[in-house]
Amino acid sequence: YLVTGAFGGLGRRVSEYLAEEYGADLVLVGRSPSGAADRAWVEALRAHGGRVESWTLDVTDERALAER
After folding, report:
1. Residue 25, C-beta contacts closer than 8 angstroms, at least 6 positions apart
2. Which of 11, 31, 51, 64 could form a disulfide bond with 5, CB atoms 3.0-4.6 angstroms apart?
3. Cα angle for residues 25, 46, 35 (degrees, 5° grid)
């Protein structure tokens, strides 16, 4: 699943639900660089068995998206 705004309140809840309930593969997208707490949270999501990627980019930037 692609979760935009993944590091905000709602994005975190959706991501946690998908990881915990389904062991879902996730692509987490946020505009701000990840801090240590964000990286720890991503690792916690991975512990549920799904593949988790974290991207720092603005989804309104077509060029940045194309580079992914």
Report:
1. 1, 50, 51, 52
2. 11
3. 110
Q: What is the rounded distance in angstroms from the CA atom of residue 22 to the CA atom of residue 36? A: 25
The model's pTM is: 0.90
Of 33, 25, 23, nearest to 51 (Cα)? Answer: 25
What would the pLDDT profile of 23-66 be if each residue is shown by its tens digit?
Answer: 999 999 999 999 999 999 999 999 999 999 999 999 999 998 89
Res 65: pLDDT: 87
Q: Are 29 and 35 in contact (CB under 8 A)?
A: no
Answer yes or no: are the C-beta atoms of 50 and 26 closer than 8 Å: yes
Residue 11 CA to residue 15 CA, distance in Å, equals: 6
